[in-house]
Amino acid sequence: MATPISTLKDNQQASDTPHPVFTDVKQRCLITAEQLKRYSEPSELPTDTRTAPDLDVGFGQQRAIKALQTALDIKASGYHVFAAGENGLGKRTIISRLLNRIAADAPTPDDWVYVHNFTDPRTPLALRLPAGQAALLQQQINSLWQQAKKRLSQRFRSDQYQSKIEAIKNNTHEQESHAYEALNAEGKQYDLALTFRSFDNKAMFVHPSQLPTENNDHDGHSPKASDSHISESETSGRNKEGRPSTNDRPTDYGNREYEAELSNFAQKNHMQKRLSQLTIALEQLEDEANDAIEALHRSIARRALQPLFAPVYEQFSAHPLVIDYLKAVFADMVTHVERIVNGDDEEFVTAVLATTPSRYAVNVIVSHPPDSGAPVIFEDLPTHLNLLGHVEQITQLGTVTTDVSMIRAGALHRANGGYLLLEASHLLEHPYAWQGLKRALQSRKIKLSSLEQMLTLTGSLSLSPAPIDLDIKVILLGEADLYYELLELEPEFDAVFKVRADFHDDVIRTSEHELALVAKMADIIDYANLYPFDRHAQATLLEHLSLQAEEQDRLSLHSDLLIKLLHESNRHARLNDESIVTAEHVTQAINDMDERSGYLRDLYWDELKNGQQLIQTQGRAVGQVNALTVVSYADSEFGMPARLTAVIQPNIGAGEILDIERDVDLGGSLHAKGMLIMTSYLRALFSQHHALNFSASLAFEQSYAHIDGDSATVSEGCALLSALANVPIDQSFAITGSMNQLGEVQAVGGINAKIAGFFDACREQELTGQQGVVIPMANVKQLMLRDDIIDAVNAGSFHIYGVHTLSEALSLMTGLPIDTMNKKGRYRKDTLFGKVLSRLMLWDENQNGEDDIDDKKSKNKVKKKQKAKRQKKEDKSRKDKRQDEKNNSEVTSNGEHDDEQNIDNNEVK
């Protein structure tokens, strides 16, 4: 952890005279105030935007314009364009203006209409006409219908028509009467009469005696007679049982009666057949009458309609398909003249909000005024229906119906023969839109399909209009990342959009380009009806565009930012009751925009004021560095210092460096890469001189968000080397920079925001005149600092240094020489690297000393053990000796006793 400032006197001897190397590095790396910002010269700009030069539509985007022109010049399939570039560059505006200029001189495409197909009503016909002729055809058909219906109604109500119909009917009735009379006369030969039954008026033959007396006339049209007629002679010859008397009946009477009945039956049957033949003949006669009436109707219709259609035929004589359609309409009107006149059929009745029945409607899909050039269409809602068109349907009493008048055009129809612009991201948001567009461009035909059937898999009845030929150039607008994703995920994308037009974010800052950007400002001002901007306001805007480009020698081309600045600057001029916009108004607008996006930044400064954020801008500390970072959130971006600390654990490990941010998944891959590069560099520095007998850890203090990027590599190297050498770092400095494995400092992003962040922190804690920042020398050309920072640098209260190597950065931060070597090729002891090696060797010696002490202790312990063992052995030997002496004395005494006993024994014997 960082060494407190109060303990630094024990670790370092203060010197009033700076080291010559430090002085040399400080002078060499100091950035002057003139290098901190590039100003635009107002005298080289127009007096105000009203005198600005004309706008070049393709300014700054020559590469994209060239690619676009290549695609437009090639008529082959697939030469459509993907315009790649960041949002806000004005891609759509530039392309639209260029296309409008080209389209004005291009031929006007043909009109297209859909009409009813009388042969196959489910597949409406698509007719192609010259520009402006579609509306004329629709008007002529509407007029034909109105005149035809009126004229036909007059003809069919005329006395002449009624007399002809009566003549046909009377003629038919007369022929029927003559036929019945002739048949009745023929029946009388067989004693049969023709009559009609009362309940169904059916003709039949009966015996005259069966006819009613009051109606028994010769015409045969009598009511129904009795079914049988029996004579009195026949009844008198029957007895009570109904059988002939045997006494009174002759023997041949039965035979004669039987033969008479057979003859009567045959004659009646014959006449019934004749009646059936007559009925068929009369039906044919009726059919002929109907045919005559129908022929009369058609004849009347032809004579009535021919004068109406003749001028229309002549008007469209150059278009055979239109003539064929007109002839089909004429024939259909003649065929269905009765239904037209009667008005009892929905197909021949004008619908609501229409002037013509759908059967004769001319649905104008697309129409162009003559000599209007090619269309340029931008579709902001590119759904499948809006792109390819669709067929509407209506529901009446639960029945879904549609007709040719309900076909609706899509963007492809409107842009056919011209140019269609689409936002790629919007296109991909809608289901089936991309597939429909791709299919149309590949087939070069617009074919309407029912999206409802595709989605619901239903079999509802719908129209299938004939496809329309497609001749179009499609320009997709999107970011480069989306282009690469489409190339990877859509195999056919490159075959359809073969040309990529790259739009640049910025342009080189030259006098010519500054004037061109002023022309762009003037164009926006004229379009939005804003106040004119004077030359000082123009210069301020140009400087801000360089700040947005993060380069002194480049200008941002983001149109959205420029439009916002112009409108907000114009607002301040209007509030001040001024008629021209000045530099003060532009500066105020910039400050307002910065304040609106500075909510998070203000929260951080509040924490800094309250002491919750620990940032030290004075004094010195070991292993502690003020690193410069950039916080990005949505559209808000600001710089702020962050405390970076390094801690060393001697005699543990072999040079491992723990990156706490990475181990807790708060560090990105680029941050991890920078850490590994710095680790490799340090190992290469010292491993050849001494073994790395330590481990270390690095962390951004009070950082709880994700960290990525390698711009802290130099900061981490300074903190780690300070902790290794136990040399304090001047906390008046903040540092940023990337580093390679050779120790060279590389450029980083967001340099202006980083410097501004530390300057504000120093100003918050009081400027001492010693504070400053250390940045890569490669970033000097990107400096476009605020005027208050430049004023502080001019006054000597703030300093900016640019370094090429890590050694220069360390010298500025520590005040010491870094890597000076002696004649033996080893770092001098007064250098930072020499101090690092000294500490590495000291840790090694301390470790060896501890090992020697441990060895002496173990030897003494062994000696003590050996001495104790010898003593124990000596004690044992002395004990054994005493035991032997004791045993010997006992043996002697026993021997004397035995001798005495032997004597006694001898005596007993």
Automatic annotation (TrEMBL):
Gene3D superfamilies with a match to the protein in the record: 1.10.8.60, 3.30.230.10, P-loop containing nucleotide triphosphate hydrolases (3.40.50.300)
Lon proteolytic domain residues: 638-816
Positions of region (Disordered): 1-20, 208-254, 847-909
Signal peptide segment: none
Basic residues compositional bias, start-end: 858-871
One Pfam family cited in the UniProt record for this chain: LonB_AAA-LID
Basic and acidic residues biased stretches: 215-243, 872-888
Ranges of compositional bias, category Polar residues: 1-16
Xref: InterPro entries: AAA_32, Lon-like_helical, Lon_proteolytic, Lon_Prtase, LonB_AAA-LID, P-loop_NTPase, Ribosomal_Su5_D2-typ_SF, Ribsml_uS5_D2-typ_fold_subgr
Entry EC no(s): 3.4.21.53
PROSITE patterns the UniProt entry points to: LON_PROTEOLYTIC (PS51786)
Catalysed reactions, as listed in the record: Hydrolysis of proteins in presence of ATP
Coiled coil: 268-302
Active site residues according to the UniProt entry: S711, K754
Swiss-Prot/TrEMBL keywords: Coiled coil, Hydrolase, Protease, Serine protease
Family: Belongs to the peptidase S16 family.
Database matches in PANTHER family: ATP DEPENDENT LON PROTEASE FAMILY MEMBER
Protein name: endopeptidase La
Native source organism of the sequence: Psychrobacter namhaensis
